[in-house]
Amino acid sequence: MSFATIAALLVALLVGAPVAAHLLRRRKAEEQPFPPAKLVPPTKPMARRRSMLEDRSLFAVRALSVLLLALLGATPFVRCARLGLARKDGASVALAIVIDDSLSMRAPLEGGAGAPGKRTKFERALASARELATGLRSGDAVAVVLGGAPARVALASTTNMAAVTGALDGIEPSDRATDLEGALSLARELLRSVPHTDRRVVLLSDLADGAPNALPLGGGSDTTLWAPLPELVASGSDCAVTRADLRAGKVRARIVCSPDARASGEGAAGVSASAGRAVELRAGGKVLASAPLGAAVRAEEVALDVPEGAPEELTVGLTPGDTILEDDEAPVVPAGGALPIAVVVDVASTHVATGGPPPIEQALAAMHLDAEVRPLPAVPDHADELAAFAGLIVDDVPGFTPEGRRSLAAWVERGGVLLLTFGPRAATAPLGAGFDPLMPGVVRWGPSPSPGADATSAVFFGPSAEGLGKLSPDGRASFDPAAATNADVLARWDDGAPLLLRRSLGRGAVFALSLPLTVDESDFVLRPAFLALLDRFVGTARARGGARQIDVGDAFTFDGFKDVAIERLPVRTGEARRPIPVVEQDGRRRAVAPLQGRYEVRLDGERAVRVATVPEREIDLRPRRVIDAARAEELGGVVPSIDASPYVALGLLGLVVLELFLRAVGQKREGSASTSA
Length: 677
What we know:
Structural class: alpha/beta
CATH topology of the largest domain: Rossmann fold
Number of strands: 31
Strand content: 25-35%
Pfam family, one: BatA
Number of helices: 12
Protein name: VWA domain-containing protein
CATH architecture of the largest domain: 3-Layer(aba) Sandwich
Keywords: Membrane, Transmembrane, Transmembrane helix
Number of domains: 5
Largest sheet: 7 strands, mixed
Distance between the termini: 57 Å
CATH superfamily of the largest domain: Class I glutamine amidotransferase (GATase) domain
Strand order of the largest sheet: 10-9-12-13-7-8-11
């Protein structure tokens, strides 16, 4: 409330003026002489008569007028506003509303530190979506897409406004990472099927998708992008406990802090949110151990000693709180070791000019994916050897023997994840070697008619898909149509041929890349998409194998169990258990973790605890740019729907007229009384 508003409201104190005026306006009754009264001795009054208000109706009108005058002065521009769109010549419009339900949208709308009761950016985005839905007309079409990773369709295009309202009522905040590229791609796809000429994608997001330096959102599409709420744009900084592992009596907590958006220039060091903060080991609200954070932390591992006699359920938290409270605490998980990933590459053909291990081993080591890379000279032929690995990468595979294919297929069906990259050796497979049932059909190698991939088809790679346009391949592998049957085409070449396939096989999955991982054949390993592929591969291996710990947004898988139930355990006092739906997809039971924390799983009567952690890429509050046209005023904006000032002024005018009327009636009554006397 501003000083001018407070000063105007103080006018209401003048309501005492009519009270004083009416008390002072006491008429003395006209005295009539009564001669016998002189015979009675005068008596001193025992009580003093109180002053009484006269003309109470007139007093009430005057007091109410003073109060309305104060209200009019305090709220000259009181409005009820909503988000509305501007139509082209009044025609119907088709909207795809993208609502960002990621972790960063939990930040307070007004900035500053997060606190219970503060309005969040997610709440503002959801309210704006409801305002847009309220202003739609008959004939308009609406679709709703959620921008948390992975992007999901909450409602396909429909003209049923009741369905839109129901879909919006079912949306809740989550702790997911952000996938704006995928969400916009889904939104455009949903709008292609509608007959409307005016098609728009409405983006309600803080734009913090972890790629602040990527190309602006909204370019290269014929569908209009509208980002109407600049107040949602991410700002500030945040620190998070992404995971806490218990090993040998010590808790090792990984702390990740967002870089400062003001840091610019080569070698500029951002101001971290870690200054003045500490890491605490907690049990039931009691602090067992603590350690200070550095003054400028981007990512750091802090070790805390577990005291003797500590309970099993421990958490690691940050103090004091910051912009996002939900990522300041994480459960402690007994570590089972890093995820074992086997790599089979030809060291001679994958050498790099700077020396060192092959590019894939260097990339896995540099990305800190909590994966243990184990180079192998050849693919294991026996199931017991493969059972030691959660994932297997085979570069420029020359084919597998029948026994090797059976072992690999059985390993994949039990939850293993296999990445096969195909190069020149795929066309020179020895007699009897092949890829079926891992990859049905024949794989051929030849010149590539396309210089790169279609970025619009490579949503799987996220923002890194932009770099796939120019791969400069010397050749590429071609798959039989049977290989794409019942498979997901995650990326395509410019001519439509598959670049990357994913086939589900039992509990596991097989990825097939039509390029080898060598700089001599293409520039793929030099692109950010290569790192994105490894990140998705390791994440899939962790989830498909029934991992005890996954990132929020990934799914726990439950293959081979008949009775499955999962609940999220309370994190704070007063919270209740939250049941998580278990769905069956492609013959596999899975449950997506929308929030970080512990999950209790009941599998055929046996109980186990699994954990979902905050994705590190979400701890970056630097916003991504959007094209300038997405902020154009002709698309719409926040418009006033009610201006309260005219109504208050009209009421005040009515009270003035009523006062004049009451005064006239009162004067007439006084005149009549005088005449009768």
